[in-house]
């Protein structure tokens, strides 16, 4: 007796089961799920796998996304506590871990999240030895270093989301001040994702017109327009949103998805992401900090050599010192 399916459909060829652009998200909290929905809406993957230790939440989130399948073009959404579900991923996005409490700095989270990385990274690499990894969990620069060490992958394939979000916030705020859309306001924040990040005022421009050429004091204490406050707002905004809604999610989800697009579509766009900066600007330690990087199918293929002025270089080195003082004490 044939089933309805057999009566309706005649199979001609065996189904190709291997996904070509599979993405795994580890951690299905606020950040992981914001990344998931943005990735689905942008059609960046042919399979999305979700992994978390909280199995009920994981199942609920998975079902909720699957029921939206009519409205996006990712045919397979899978999930599980076991990392076998992540096998054959092109990209693994790590958002697992504790998040900041109100008023807590990103750096204070460190040992808790290092322990989580220890428990998950070797298994991820075992199942997807050729993947790229995009680290989002905080403190993101230190954890990207830790994941690089734990994974055994080349540094070019272990990318920290770094200052991609900080720079997006910077451009939004510049845009608000000028009444121009952020895509037309160019500006970069490098260094640590967090309190010691470095705004590159010398590069801030609209249509190639450097704002500093209009006011050489731009970004300094003696600037009467107080552009410096914009960087202060960038630093404070994470704390402020956590105070107001308990966590941050949408902007990080969107900014991570922008990175995912560059990687999976091999766009070779330049993003401020966290990478190994030993040897740059005289840095001697194995530190991960954000600098402009070319992102494509192999991860970070190139870096852009930014000419920092002496003040910017000093701030960048200070960012490195702050991270190194924490990183050198880590046990993993
Ligand atoms: N880099 C950035 O710009 C940025 C921005 C926002 C948040 N974050 C960071 O992202 C991380 C996640 O934030 P959130 O708000 O989604 O937190 P959350 O508490 O909502 O979610 C974290 C998830 O990780 C899971 N988890 C914990 N241990 C795990 C393990 N061993 N294996 C698998 N999953 C595990 C939890 O069950 C939870 O679902 C935090 O570290 C946060 O600070 C980074």
UniProtKB/TrEMBL annotation:
Residues 22-160 form the Lactate/malate dehydrogenase N-terminal domain. InterPro entries: L-lactate/malate_DH, L-lactate_DH, L-lactate_DH_AS, Lactate/malate_DH_C, Lactate/malate_DH_N, Lactate_DH/Glyco_Ohase_4_C, NAD(P)-bd_dom_sf. GO terms for biological process: lactate metabolic process. The active site is at 193 (proton acceptor). NAD(+) binds at residues 27-32, 52, 113, 136-138. Residues 164-328 form the Lactate/malate dehydrogenase C-terminal domain. Pathway: Fermentation; pyruvate fermentation to lactate; (S)-lactate from pyruvate: step 1/1. Keywords: Cytoplasm, NAD, Oxidoreductase. This is L-lactate dehydrogenase. It comes from Panthera pardus.
């Amino acid at each position: 007796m044939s089933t309805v399916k057999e009566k309706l459909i005649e199979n001609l060829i065996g189904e190709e089961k291997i996904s070509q652009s599979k993405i795994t998200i580890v951690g299905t909290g606020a950040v992981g799920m914001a990344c998931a929905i943005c990735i689905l809406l942008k059609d960046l993957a042919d399979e999305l796998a979700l992994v978390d230790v909280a199995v009920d939440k994981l199942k609920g989130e998975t079902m909720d996304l699957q029921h939206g399948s009519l409205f996006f073009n990712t045919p397979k959404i899978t999930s599980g506590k076991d990392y076998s579900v992540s096998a054959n991923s092109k990209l693994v996005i790590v958002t697992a871990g504790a998040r900041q409490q109100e008023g807590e700095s990103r750096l204070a989270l460190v040992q808790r999240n290092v322990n989580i990385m220890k428990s998950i990274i070797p298994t991820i690499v075992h199942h997807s030895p050729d993947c790229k990894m995009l680290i989002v969990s905080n403190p993101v620069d230190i954890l990207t270093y830790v994941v690089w060490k734990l994974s055994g992958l080349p540094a070019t394939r272990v990318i920290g989301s770094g200052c991609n979000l900080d720079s997006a916030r910077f451009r939004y705020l510049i845009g608000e001040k000028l009444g121009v859309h952020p895509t037309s306001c160019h500006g970069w924040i490098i260094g640590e994702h967090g309190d010691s990040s470095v705004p590159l005022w010398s590069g801030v421009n609209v249509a190639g017109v450097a704002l500093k050429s209009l006011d050489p004091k731009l970004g300094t204490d003696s600037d009467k327009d107080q552009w410096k406050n914009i960087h202060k707002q960038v630093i404070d905004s994470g704390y402020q949103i956590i105070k107001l809604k308990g966590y941050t999610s949408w902007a990080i989800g969107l900014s991570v998805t922008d990175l995912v697009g560059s990687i999976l579509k091999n766009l070779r766009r330049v993003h401020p992401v966290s990478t190994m900066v030993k040897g740059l600007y005289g840095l001697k330690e194995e530190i991960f900090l954000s600098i402009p990087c070319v992102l494509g199918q192999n991860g970070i293929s190139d870096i852009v050599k930014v000419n920092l002025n002496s003040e910017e270089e000093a701030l960048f080195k200070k960012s490195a010192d702050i991270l190194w003082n924490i990183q050198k004490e880590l046990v993993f």
